[in-house]
TrEMBL record:
It holds the Pfam family DUF418. Keywords: Membrane, Transmembrane, Transmembrane helix. Residues 286-460 form the DUF418 domain. It comes from the Bacteria. The chain crosses the membrane at residues 40-57, 77-107, 144-163, 170-190, 267-289, 301-324, 354-372, 393-411, 423-442. This is DUF418 domain-containing protein. The keyword Cytoplasm does not apply.
Length: 472
C-alpha cells in the first residue's frame, strides 16, 4: 500500500473513500487515489473516541465521584491521563476530517464548474447526509447508544456544505467565533439552571418560616425539581437508572435513555451544532492549506506540535487541577454553582483542545513522513490505522454493538460492574480486533459492510463489493 501523504489525484473521501467522475461516480476510487494521511488520521480519531465513550456505555451516573478527589486511586490517574491528553481532542480530529471529506466528496463533481454534474453531486451529497441522519437515529434509538454522533454529523454536514468554497482564513475563524458564542450560550444555559436553583433556595427560606406557598412559588419548586432530576440525579434515581440498564428486557433499557436522547436531538439540538460545525470548517481550512495531506515542511509540523503541546498541556493540566481542587463531586459543584454566576474556567477548554489536537495531528503526520518509503513494523502499523479509517463507519457502529452487548442487561449485563481502569482492557481488545480485521477485510472487499450499504443507498445503485483481480 502506498503511504504517500501528498497524493493529488484524489476524488472524494468522507468517512470512507468516495467515487470519481462521470460514469465512474459509481465506482470506488483506487487505493493509489486515496489520501493515506487522512485515512490514518481518521483511524486514530475513531479509535481514540472510544476512550471517552466507553464510560457512558458502562458506568452509572456520578461514577467518578468515588475517585475524582483521590490521587491514591489508580482510577484517578487513568481519568487524568485520558482527560488531559484525549478528552475532546479525538472528537475534534474526527470532526475536522469529516469536514475534509465534504470538500473531497464534492471536489471531483464540481471540477468542471456549475452545471448538471455539479447539481447531481449536490443531490448525492444531501442524500448521503440524509442517510447518515437515519443511521444516527438507528444507532441511538435502536442500538441504544446515548452518545451517537452520526445523527448530528448528518445535519451539521449539510450546514458545513455551504461554506466549503470559502477562503481557508475565513473557515478557520469559525473556531474562535464558535468558542466565544459557545461560551456565551453555555453560560446562558448555566445561568438559566442556576436561576432556578437560586429561586428554589429562596422558596426554602419561605417554607422554613411556615408560610404557605403561592401558585407561582409552587411552580418554582416544580421547575427546580425537574431540572435537578435531569442534570443532578440523586442516589435513588441513579439506582433506578442502573436497575433499568441491567434489565434483561430490551425495552426497559431503551426506556432509560430514549427521552433524554430525543431531547438532545430536538430541544437541545441548537446547542450541539456549533462546535462540530466550527471543527468541520477548520478541517476544510487545513485541507486547503495542505496541513492534513502532509504537504507542510517538517519544520512547520514540528513548530505546530511544540507550540500546541507547549501551550495546550499547561492549560488543560491547570483546568484539570482546578476541577480536582474545587469541583470534585456533585455536592462541591452545587456550592460552586450557587457562588459562581459565570464559570470562567470553561473558557480554557476550546483553546487547549485546539492546541492539543493540532499538536497530536502534527505528531502523527511527522510519524507518517518518517515511515513513508520504509518497510517494517511502523509502516505496517500505519497501514492498519489507514484500514481502520477507511472502515470508520463500520468500526464506529461496531463499538456500539460490542459495548451494548457487554454492558446492557439484555447482553452480558456488566453495567456498573467494572472499575473505571478495567474498561480500558476492553478498549484495547476492541482496538486490536479492528486493527487486525479491517486490513483483512479490505484485502478482499472494496468497502466496509456499512460503507457499502451507505454508498449503495447514496447512489441508489448496488455497488460492486468484492475487489476485482486483474490478470497480468
Amino acid at each position: 500500500m502506498n503511504l504517500s501523504p501528498t497524493t493529488s489525484s484524489i476524488a472524494e473521501a468522507s468517512l470512507s473513500g468516495m467515487p470519481q467522475r462521470g460514469t465512474a461516480d459509481h465506482r470506488p476510487i483506487s487505493q493509489a487515489e486515496r489520501i493515506q494521511t487522512i485515512d490514518i488520521l481518521r483511524g486514530v480519531a475513531l479509535l481514540g473516541i472510544l476512550l471517552m465513550n466507553i464510560p457512558y456505555f458502562s458506568m452509572a451516573e456520578r461514577f467518578s465521584e468515588v475517585f475524582q478527589s483521590d490521587p491514591t486511586n489508580v482510577n484517578f490517574w487513568v481519568s487524568a491521563g485520558i482527560t488531559i491528553l484525549f478528552e475532546g481532542k479525538m472528537r475534534a480530529l474526527f470532526s475536522m476530517i469529516f469536514g475534509v471529506g465534504i470538500i473531497l466528496f464534492m471536489g471531483r463533481k464540481e471540477k468542471d464548474g456549475p452545471g448538471h454534474d455539479s447539481q447531481s453531486g449536490k443531490a448525492l451529497f444531501f442524500r448521503r447526509m440524509g442517510w447518515l441522519v437515519l443511521y444516527g437515529l438507528i444507532d441511538s434509538h435502536v442500538l441504544l447508544w446515548v452518545g451517537d454522533i452520526l445523527y448530528y454529523y448528518g445535519i451539521i454536514g449539510i450546514i458545513a456544505f455551504w461554506f466549503r468554497r470559502m477562503k481557508p482564513t475565513y473557515l478557520a475563524m469559525g473556531v474562535p467565533l464558535v468558542a466565544i458564542i459557545g461560551f456565551v450560550a453555555s453560560t446562558l444555559f448555566y445561568q438559566n439552571v442556576r436561576n432556578k436553583r437560586m429561586a428554589y433556595l429562596a422558596i426554602q427560606t419561605v417554607q422554613k418560616q411556615g408560610q404557605k406557598l403561592t401558585v407561582a412559588q409552587q411552580q418554582i419548586v416544580k421547575d427546580w425539581k425537574e431540572a435537578q432530576k435531569q442534570f443532578f440525579p440523586n442516589k435513588a434515581e441513579i439506582a433506578e437508572h442502573t436497575r433499568m440498564m441491567k434489565s434483561d428486557d430490551y425495552f426497559t433499557v431503551a426506556k432509560r435513555y430514549r427521552k433524554e436522547v430525543l431531547e438532545q436531538q430536538t430541544v437541545y439540538l441548537i446547542f450541539g451544532l456549533w462546535d462540530p460545525l466550527a471543527l468541520m470548517l477548520l478541517g476544510m481550512a487545513l485541507y486547503k492549506w495542505g496541513f492534513v495531506t502532509g504537504q507542510w515542511s517538517r519544520r512547520r509540523y514540528w513548530q505546530t506540535m511544540l507550540i500546541g503541546y507547549g501551550l495546550g498541556l499547561p492549560l488543560v493540566t491547570y483546568s484539570f487541577y482546578y476541577g480536582y481542587a474545587n469541583i470534585p463531586n456533585t455536592a462541591a459543584f452545587m456550592v460552586y454553582f450557587e457562588t459562581h454566576p459565570i464559570s470562567w474556567i470553561d473558557l480554557i477548554y476550546p483553546f487547549q483542545r485546539i492546541l492539543l489536537v493540532m499538536a497530536h495531528a502534527s505528531l502523527l503526520i511527522l510519524l507518517i513522513h518518517r515511515a513513508v518509503g520504509r518497510s517494517g513494523r511502523a509502516q505496517g502499523f500505519l497501514n492498519r490505522l489507514s484500514a481502520v479509517g477507511q472502515m470508520a463507519f463500520t468500526n464506529y457502529v461496531m463499538h456500539t454493538l460490542i459495548c451494548t452487548f457487554v454492558f446492557n442487561g439484555y447482553g452480558l449485563n456488566q453495567y456498573a460492574e467494572w472499575q473505571f481502569y478495567q474498561l480500558y482492557y476492553l478498549v484495547g481488545a476492541i482496538w486490536v480486533l479492528q486493527l487486525i480485521v479491517s486490513p483483512i477485510w479490505l484485502r478482499y472487499y472494496q468497502f466496509g459492510p456499512l460503507e457499502w450499504v451507505w454508498r449503495s443507498l447514496t447512489y441508489w445503485e448496488r455497488q460492486l463489493m468484492r475487489r476485482q483481480v486483474i490478470a497480468s
